[in-house]
Write a structure and sequence with these properties.
The structure is a single chain. This protein has 5 helices and 8 strands. By secondary structure, it is an alpha+beta fold. The protein has a single domain, classed as Chemotaxis protein chec (3-Layer(aba) Sandwich). The two termini are 20 Å apart.
């Protein structure tokens, strides 16, 4: 389970250190893809396969299914941890998420997200301001 929030710098080669607590779940590798909220979604390989199966089960005759499938798979990169527990963030994903010198890794239970610090600060403030409304609407 991915929990917490961690800020790390990005080195000159575009590598990002993964928190030690996350690494155990990533031994089979992971897939990075465009997130829905201007971030990078990071899926352990098994979670990515489950998502791929769900998308494959949807009817490709629906234009929204085709579009979601395209956006999901065209932006996806399989990556592995190096010996120091780092991953290389592909440039297209860094550009999409406006990630430059640093990134914030945010636990999301079965996956984690990688945010630019500025966008994460804005998202976190919006979440805090609306948490009670979200809980009320979702009946949590």
């Amino acid at each position: 389970m991915f929990l917490g929030e961690y800020e790390h710098s990005i080195d000159q080669k575009g590598r990002l250190a993964i928190p030690a607590r996350f690494r155990e779940s990533l031994q089979s590798g992971l897939v990075l893809a465009r997130g829905l909220d201007r971030c990078i979604s990071a899926y352990p390989w098994d979670e990515w396969k489950a998502l791929a199966e769900k998308l494959a089960a949807l009817p490709m005759t629906h234009s929204n299914v085709r579009r979601l499938t395209r956006t999901t798979f065209s932006s996806a990169f399989r990556v592995d941890l190096d010996a120091q527990g780092r991953i290389l963030l592909p440039q297209p994903l860094r550009d999409y998420a406006a990630i430059h010198d640093a990134a914030v890794l945010v636990g999301m239970h079965r996956l984690f997200e990688i945010w630019s610090p500025g966008l994460w600060t804005a998202e976190r403030e919006a979440m805090i301001d609306s948490a009670w409304q979200l809980a009320e609407e979702l009946e949590l």
